[in-house]
Predict the structure of Cyclic pyranopterin monophosphate synthase.
Amino acid sequence: MLTHIDEKNRPKMVDVTPKSETLRVATASGIIKMNKDAFSAIKTNTAKKGPVLQTAVVAAIMGTKKTSELIPMCHPLLISSVDTDIVELSEISAFKLFVTVKIKGQTGVEMEALTGVSVGLLTIYDMVKAIDKSMIITDIVLESKEGGKSGNYLRA
């Protein structure tokens, strides 16, 4: 039986009441590829809309915190920590964003990490789309998770 469908085949939010609070951590990542002009504008901090990477970090944190408002079956969570990292992939004119979310709670934070990455990358797109509308957001994945009944996961 699917966990988000009840016995009458109606959508439902999973009841996490019986679950114990444990430390849960999830890391997700994604890549945004662009032309050299957009990449250069971001690196040199000359994009007209302001500091792109710093704004993307704030957006990733905000997206993480708003996940339950965007994804219907996600629980609102009291997130303990959101950490971000952005890696330059200069050989392909791209940036890779990592978001790590931590909570002591009854449910995992994979969706929060994935949403944070998505919103952060969309923010980069928004801020330099005047330079390059052909940017590609790709490879949004769960890198790892710790805690909970299903245990740990590490992308191979």
About this structure: The mean pLDDT is 95. The domain at 22-146 is CATH 3.30.70.640 (Alpha-Beta Plaits).
